[in-house]
Amino acid sequence: MSEAAPTDTDAAGEVEPAGHFRIYLGAAPGVGKTYAMLSEGHRRQERGADVVAGFVEAYGRPHTEELINGLEVIPRQVIEYRGSRLEEMDLDAVLRRRPGIALVDELAHTNVPGSGPHEKRWQDVLDMLGAGIDVVTTVNIQHLESIADDVEHMTGAKVRERVPDWVVRKADQIELADSSPEQLRRRMLHGNIYRKEKISQALTHFFQTDNLIALRELALRFVADESDEELLEHLRRRHPVSSPILWETTERIMVAVTAAAGNDVLLRRAARIALRVRGELDVVHVTVSDATRTEDARPVDRLRELTAALGARWHHVQDDDPAEAIVSFARENQITQIVIGSIQHSWWHFPGGGPILRQVIHEAGASGIDVHLIARREPPPAAAPSPGAAQE
Q: In the chain, pLDDT over 70 holds for what percent of residues?
């Protein structure tokens, strides 16, 4: 029997935000997300809306700075932290002002400790939405939790600031701010993205043409998937339940995880598969009843947190036959695809039962369930810190 644990996603779904939520999504810094956000703010203001700039980061880009003029700017708060004076958005000031629309840059930003009630800016944004304030914000594709690991392997740059996928999917509209890799590199050379001293390093690292092409494809695919979801929701509202286009069988993805190192990567890969096929994702953690088998709870807790961040469902199953437990769960929950790692914890090979991977593949195949075997990936080698390489 499986036990579906409550997650942060469940809690978030209990209270829907009252404000409207719009995100400008980009493949990389410099594609024009902030410019597009500010341009929308001016358009809405000209139509009579009450617009404020809650927090806008221009990074010295003159065209962006010009667009801030004419908008009411909420003063930033200054925080003393480790001997430095740092500026952060003043959430309380925005909530007191209670505008119709707040422009808030960099959804993935990590707040300076002591600057407010939340660790992350996306949590501040949820507070604004809950207060009935419309929010227009920006984020780069590499900061999505399900995509960040792939970007790290692709670029070699650490992605430290991440946004749970379910937060981005709460947006009423996701708009792509797009720019070709060639155009981005030209803008970089002209000093329109980073300061002069950062240009050479950026062009030879994160802003390599291959990286920009791959990041652009990730952004395009994500927005296309979201557009398909909007179309399906529209059809569900307009067509009767009996319509075959609405109620045909959908893909349901399941990933089997253990406490072993690398299962966070496995979980994110499964989330990507589920996103691509627009399927639901269930995360199954099987433990055996043998009291001699002990498992560190900390990795499991981290996997539960990651499951919530990815918008998936967590299930804990206790069974002395892990292979049978995995396949039985899949059958009972109409799973169409199982995702499993090629190298798992030692109990994946149990006495008398043979290798569990072979058993899962055999039994799942007999039930018409596809199995994805994910290769183990080593983390990218640690590189010397490079300011501005991976984040705005």
A: 80
